[in-house]
Amino acid sequence: MATTTTSPRSAKAGKPAAKTSAVRRTGSSARARQSTNPKVRTRSPHQARPTTKNTVDVFGDYTERAVLIPVGAALIARDRVVSTVNHAISSYSSTTKAQAQLRRFERRGATARNRLEREVRKARVRVERELRQRRRELKKTVTSLEERRDAVAKNVTELPNRVQERILDLV
Q: What is the pTM of this model?
């Protein structure tokens, strides 16, 4: 025969948890759930507690939560520490396992180093390419300016000769 377990709330009321869930599953009518006291509201299937509680019950609930929250957090932290320690022990329990772990670390480090070197090479190539392009553009600009300078200088040196020729032509 199966034993029925009670939840903390149903234990206070003196009812086993299996019976309350069975009532919910059968879909009892709203009239069957109504209380004889008009001041107390009836519980819906989703409502865990009655709406009116005395101060002692409320204080007890908050006190219980205030104790259970740090205990639960401490237990979770303990489980994490234990699993980490167990993992470390299993990873380094023998010399062959420790050497295998060190080889993994070495491969990981080599992979990271190669990736960094590759990125540095790409960056250097990119900078050199931009530098060559800017040098070409600068050379073109300098050549263009030199040609304009030479043309202006030629016009300036020839200008007095032209003026002189026009004056002679006019005379």
A: 0.41
